[in-house]
Structures are given as structure tokens and as C-alpha cells.
Design goal:
Length: 90
């Protein structure tokens, strides 16, 4: 009688552990896919940021050689925006 009860309990424990193993494996698969998607998106965003920075640097170099009041105003407003302190995150 005692052996049969322990055997039943251990069988249920084994079933629960097997089910948890499957759940954790599925979570790992889904999170790995999400990570890969986010990594690709971050790479694309980083490339776009680098292109924008290169364009801004070229525009600034151009404005140094050929002064233009409109470009000067744009760069001054961009510098003023960058100089403002950002609010602390909560």
C-alpha cells in the first residue's frame, strides 16, 4: 500500500516536471525568435542612425565652406536642443 502511494506521487511529480520542461523549452524557442527579430531591427535602426549622422556631418561641413543663414539657424537650434538636460527617468 505504501509503495503504491509513493509510486503514484512520484509519477505525478515526474509528469509535472516533464510538463514544466516542455513549457520552458517552448518559452526558450519563442524568446530566441523574438531576440533575433529585435536584434535585426536594432541593426537596421543603427544603420539608419549612422546614415543620418553622416548626412548631418556632411551638411555641417558644407555650411562651414559655404555659409548659409538657414543652415546656421538649423544647426544652432539642434545644438540648443542637445544642450538641454533630459528629465530623469522614473
Amino acid at each position: 500500500m505504501k509503495c503504491e502511494t509513493i509510486n503514484t506521487i512520484l509519477t505525478y511529480v515526474l509528469g509535472v516536471l516533464a510538463l514544466l520542461g516542455v513549457i520552458f523549452a517552448l518559452q526558450t524557442i519563442f524568446r530566441t525568435r523574438e531576440f533575433r527579430t529585435l536584434q535585426i531591427q536594432a541593426t537596421v535602426d543603427n544603420a539608419n542612425l549612422m546614415r543620418i549622422q553622416a548626412l548631418a556631418n556632411e551638411a555641417y561641413a558644407y555650411s562651414q565652406k559655404n555659409p548659409n543663414p538657414e543652415l546656421t539657424r538649423i544647426f544652432q537650434s539642434a545644438q540648443a536642443t542637445a544642450a538641454q538636460p533630459k528629465p530623469a527617468a522614473r
